[in-house]
Amino acid sequence: MDFPTKGSRVVGRYVETAYHDETVRAYVPPALPPEPELRLEALQQLLEQANQAIGRLDGLTGAFPDLALYIYSWVRKDAVLSSQIEGTQSSLSDLMMFENGDAPGVPVHDVQDVSNYVAAMSHGLTRMRAGFPLSLRLIREMHEVLLSRGRGAHQQPGEFRRSQNWIGGSRPGNASYVPPPPELVEDCMGALEKFLHEDRPDLPVLVQAALIHVQFESIHPFLDGNGRIGRLLITLLLCARGVMTEPILYLSLYFKKHRAAYYDLLDRVRTRGDWESWLHFFLTGVKETAVEATHAARRMMVLFAEHRKQIETLGRPAASVLLVYRHMQRTPILSIVNAAPKLGISAPTVAKSLEHLRQLGIVREMTGKQRHRMFVYEPYLAILNEGMEPIR
Predict the structure, then answer these.
(1) Same domain for 136 and 253?
(2) What would the pLDDT profile of 263-283 be if each residue is shown by its tens digit?
(3) How far apart are the first and last CA of the chain?
(4) Which of 50, 81, 190, 196 could form a disulfide with 286 if both were Cys (CB 3.0 to 4.6 A apart)?
(5) Same domain, 52 and 106
(6) pLDDT in tens, 172-182
(7) How far is Cα 263 from Cα 83, in angstroms, rounded to an integer?
């Protein structure tokens, strides 16, 4: 969808920078907000629809029987999706097995990257709930957590880059995009932080989130992890501005589904100043993602209620079975040996409870073995796994 711009839109500038034995042109984005001002008239209806969809999703937070469980699951789903965009082949099942001390089905460093993402998100939310502002300092802290272990540990965790990076290609000279040279990163990020803290009643929060995401991706301030931190910023900003009371909206699945359009629109902003087309894409993603998340949450609530009723018909064993069942809502794949100490009950009791759940058709034993058995809560995991196929 093409939108008219008001006058000639400022699109940034190119500067020459040296990289080894070649001179390359690096892009330096103009400070936010875009100039001339955005034309939002054609986007008003979509903006209202996106806000309404978020409102309906946020309204479910009071109805969900265990909000912490829902957030726990959705953060992990986003972690897998966001990491898949960056090239990992880890699945949600791999992450859950890894977190429970079991061997995942992919290389451990893939799952470690995803686990780090969960930790980075949790760190950001904890700091913000304690009153710390969304700021460059917090962004660097989250980045340090994101790259604290695994493949990114040597990529200056928590520090803005001191060397040139690029996107696509084998070097800046043949790259598809070259962000600002390292000596300009601090200034660019400082300008972004200034906009982040400005009171802009003329710009709806969803519009601000869309602008900030593009600006962060264009600056690409870290050697690694920019995409994951950039996607985290969307959710954190919406929480910080009160659009959502809880972190329950994540756009990674939408970006993954439409990644060709996503990258093309980022380029159109940089080369043409076409912010309006990007905003249309972004707001559509917010609306669709919120609607999908609302439907998924309602299906989860129905599923949990139905299975709880089944368990309550068991009589005396129901108490321990419910305890194990509740644990499987948090960990849809588990082994008896790992579940027992976490639940504070004996392994035989866990085994008997899982057998009751299996007979009720709620869980399935997935190994076919007599020893080291693992059980999966398939109906629940199926809801979480929608759209989770790794990018090939």
Answers:
(1) yes
(2) 999 999 999 999 999 999 999
(3) 28
(4) 50
(5) yes
(6) 999 999 999 99
(7) 16
